[in-house]
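#lab-general

N.A. 3:47 PM
ok so I finally got the sequence cleaned up, no stray characters, all 335 residues accounted for. can someone with queue access submit it? mine expired

B.Y. 3:52 PM
send it over

N.A. 3:53 PM
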Amino acid sequence: MNRIRWGILSTADIGLKKVIPGMLRSQHATVDAIASRDLAKAREAAADLGIARAYGSYEELLADPAIDAIYNPLPNHLHVPWTIKAAEAGKHVLCEKPISLTVAEAKTLLPVRERTGVKIGEAFMVDTHPQWIRVRELLDAGRVGDLRTVMGFFSYYNVDPENIRNKLETGGGALMDIGCYMVRGARYAFRQEPSRVVALVERDAQMGTDRLISGLLDFPAGQAVFTSSTQLVPYQRINFLGTKGRIELPVPVNAPPDRPLELVIDSGVDPFGGGIEVETFSICDQYAKQCDAFSKAILENGKVAVPVEDAIGNMAVIEALFRSAKSGKWEQPES
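B.Y. 4:20 PM
back already:
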C-alpha cells in the first residue's frame, strides 16, 4: 500500500473549504469517504469534492474497513471523544487543533494510543509548511544569534453568536481558536516549555468568549509575547528576534495555496531595511503537506509532526494562560 485511505468525520467548513481540497492533492493519500449526521449534507459534500462514499452517521464511517485514517474537524468539545472512538475502531487520527478542552482530557488519548497502536496527531498544519521548516533551519544555524524573543499577533473579526468559534461551551474564543498558534509558534521556536505565563483577557459581554487576549510566556531562554482577537481587523504576523538578527513570517498561519510566500531575515544593521534578505517559497498547499506528512508517518511507521505529547504541552500553556487571566498572577503550566 502506497496511499492511505482517508475518511472525513463531519462536513465542517474548515474541512470542506480548506483541508479536504488540500488532501485531494496529496501524493500519499486518497479521500474515500465523508460522514455527516445529515446524510444529504454528506452526499452533497461528496459530490462536490469527488469523494466516493457518503455516510449518514460517524459510526458508519468508523466501521468502514476500507478506511485507514480519519481527519477529525468536529467542534472542539468533540475532538477527544470521537478521536477515541476512531482509534478504538483501528483508525489513525489527525485531529484538528486544539486537540482537547483541557490537559486532563488530552491525556486520556495516551493510553488509547498505546492500547490501539494507531497514530494520533494534532493538525497544526503550520509545522509541515516549508516556511516554518525554514525558520527551524535558520534558528538552528544561528542566523539570529541566540533567540531571545518571539512576538506574534493573530486576529480576525467575527461577532456572529451562532458561529461555533463564538460558543463558549464548545471551546470557542480567541485563545483556543487562533492564540493556540502563537503559543505553538513560541514553543516550536524555543524548543522549550515556558516556566510561567501571564495573561490579560477581555470577554464578550454577551457570548462570554475571550475576544481579546494578550499573553507573556517566560521561557528559560527568553520570552514570547502575543495578542489574539476574534473582534479586530484581520491581521497576522510573527517575529523571532535574537542577539544578531530577526526572522519574520508575514503570513504565518493562513498560508494561501495559490500564491508564493516570503520570509524576511533582517540583520538589523539598517533601520530602513538595508540589512533585509527575503526568501520566497514556491506555491504549495499546506493542508496537502500536512496530509502527506501524516500519511507517510503511517506508511513508514514514523513519527507524526505534532504528537499527543506536544498537544498536551500546548494545552498546558493555554490552561495556565486562562488561570492567569482569572488570578491576575503568573501561573505555571502543568508539567
